[in-house]
Amino acid sequence: MLAIALVLAGAVWAKLAYWQVAKRGQLAAAAQQQYREYVPLPAIRGAIFDRNLTQLVVNTAVYSAFVSPDQISAGERDRVAGGLSSVLGVDKASVLATLSSRAKFAYIARRFSKAKADQLRALKLPGVGLLDETQRSYLPGATAGTTLAADLLGFANWDGNGQAGVEMKYQKSLAGTPGYISSYRDLANNEIVLGSHTHTDPVNGQDLVLSLDANVQYAAEQALADGIKKDNAESGSVLIMDPSTGGIVAWADYPSYNANDFNHTDPALFKDNVVSYLYEPGSVMKVVTLSGAINQGVIAPNTVINDPGVLSVGGYRIYDWDHANHGNIDYTYVLAHSLNVGAMKAMLAEGHDAFYKNLQAFGLTQPSGIDVAGESFVAPPSASQMADSQYATTSFGQGIDVNMVQMLAAVNVVANGGKYAPPHVVDRVGTQINPVLLQPQRQVVSPQTAAQMTAMMEQVVQKGSGSLARVPGFAKDETGKTGSSQIPVNGQYTSDVWTSYVGFLPAQHPRFTMLVVVRKPHYPGSDRDWTLNDGYLTAAPIWKTIAQNIVVSWHITPDPG
Amino acid sequence: MFGHAYLGVGAVVVCLLFYLAIAAQITQASYDISRLQDQQRQLLAEQDQLRYQEVTQHAPAQVQQQAAQSGMQRVVPSSYVQGQQVAVDLTAPVGASAADATPLWQRAVAAVLNQVAGTRDVMASTKK
User: Would A10 be classed as within a structural domain?
Assistant: First the structure.
């Protein structure tokens, strides 16, 4: 009898020991889970401002409505369904079906406005709850169904993660660090105030101040959209830079998208053509080629060469755009009339090695490093691997792939007295100045070379292919260069082109440098004469419209004298 | 003996009541905190909403739309006239030049009547 009692007692003790010793940790964790509550405290995502401190992105609250059907009596279902249907516009029958399901939880509508949430709250419907969430709201853009600077800013998804552009590049700074509260709850789910608390405050995200000007951005988007429609083009982009700092003033793409409605947007539109699209810059490259040759001292603006309209290089005959014999001309004429033979002769005078080093110095053999997500870059072959013909075509901007940021930063060297201003979008993160702004700028060509090239580019506007970009009042005080290049498909050049126009204004004391690129224009009449699809007719007028707007907006006056 | 017992029970009851009162107060404070937190959340949401409205009102798209509705148009930069030679010699010394050959009596009359009959310096100085 005693033995049986001992065995039974031993069994009980063993079981007790099992639960209280062996399983102690597991049980303690399970108990903690029941009465301990962990409440995350989200950090507020940083705002984004333009250079004039115009807020470009605002955090707003949106609401989701849910029901707990098991808490709604059969008699009240009709009133609840009617209320939800009238405020949220959902189908009453489907709401009734949800309410009859006896489920514990079901969403009725997601991410609607505060106004609707307030209406719903006022109805005091039983078993209906609201969840609030944060959403990024962007300003309206220049064309219907777009938001301002959508391609530059990108957007943050519903989880608060930047998915493109500045939102993605500066995710860490913008997002901040969430905090939390850990406390105890009683059986009725009330917080036990006297219980032990662990509390960590969230660190809110930092605000960004961009070099962007919202008014110029808007004007650029508007002019670009109008121009692309007029040119019957596939797409186009505009990039404007502050010549002395490299800060981006405007960054426009057409077509663009509505960042407030990113979940209903064709993902193809998320590709940012300014920085993620590579193109052959065409004759805009002549600014780089001739600047390098002048800087080397192998040519001067008034050096006379003979241009028969064609040059044989590496077994290929390469022509001027007009196939005409231009006779004896100087390099100012070469640039003004965009002659390929002149560009090739300048490159040959300079030599392959020096020309390649020139490309490197102008930043065309490495990514621009701009602080926007998604920069595309293809490294050109090394100097020794480039064929003679490729050197020749590169001198006038074919056979080399660049993105718009690289190309604009390269031309901006001329506007900035020969110095390379690193392109950037963000001027300040919180209270910290972007370190790029504090670094000394690299001297690429001498100030004298830059001044000579500026004078040559002025002639492009006054006497050459830039006449359609003349801004009233600045006709003798602005620079420009057109560009057109054929688009290759499967290794063959097609009759589709990229056209472009680059320039800065005022010539002697530039306030902005701007590059306009139009993709696959079909200018009226180009079905008979495809050369009408030229930077002169398509991109230059867009440049002019935007430049006029900046002149008015920034009160720019011509240089004296 | 019983007196002490009553006293003890009474003390316990008082403590119990005091505890209950405190607990009720704490519970009430908890509810108030929750309610105020909810109110604060709503007010912050409202503030964000108002900020977005304000920012949108100042957005270039809105400004342009309102300007167009008011019949306003953007000015085109006007072209400027090329400078021309000025007829007045701006480098000439101020006042009557040493070579001024105007007779003294004429200068005296001009000084009195403010009439002009002399050099361009005098003209410049007397022109209204």
Answer: no
Put simply, the chain A residues between 196 and 255 with a CB less than 8 A from any chain B CB are: 214-215, 217-219
Q: Residue A29: pLDDT above 90? A: no
Same domain? A120 vs A238: no
The answer to whether residues A377 and A233 belong to one domain is yes
Residues A369 and A474 in one domain: yes
> Chain A: nearest CA to B77, how far in angstroms?
6
Three-class SS state of A387: coil
- pLDDT tens for each residue of B72-81: 877 765 555 5
Q: Does A60 touch chain B (CB under 8 A)?
A: yes
| For chain A, percent of residues with pLDDT exceeding 90 | 72
Give the residue-averaged pLDDT of B10-36: 92
Instruction: Work out the mean pLDDT of chain A and round it to a whole number.
Output: 92
| Structural domain total, chain A | 2
Q: Three-class SS of residue B104?
A: helix
Which residue, among A479, A453, A477, A456, has the nearest Cα to A466 in the 3D structure? A479
CATH value at residue A365: 3.40.710.10
Angstroms from B76 CA to nearest CA on chain A: 7
Task: Examine residue A170 and state whether it is found in any structural domain, yes or no.
Answer: no
Find out whether A546 and A240 touch, Cβ atoms under 8 Å.
yes
Task: Tell me the two tokens of residue A47.
Answer: 């705002």
B82 phi and psi, to 5 degrees? Answer: -65, 140
Residue B114, pLDDT above cutoff 60: no
Q: Which domain holds residue A103?
A: 69-126
Domain boundary among A81, A104, A126: A126
Q: Does ipTM come in above 0.90?
A: no
**Are A110 and A238 within one domain?**
no
Name the closest residue on chain A to residue B48, using Cα atoms. A60
Model confidence pLDDT, tens digit, residues A445-474? 999 999 999 999 999 999 988 999 999 889
List, in order, residues 6 or more apart from B20 with CB less than 8 Å away: none
Last residue of a domain, one of A126, A144, A169: A126
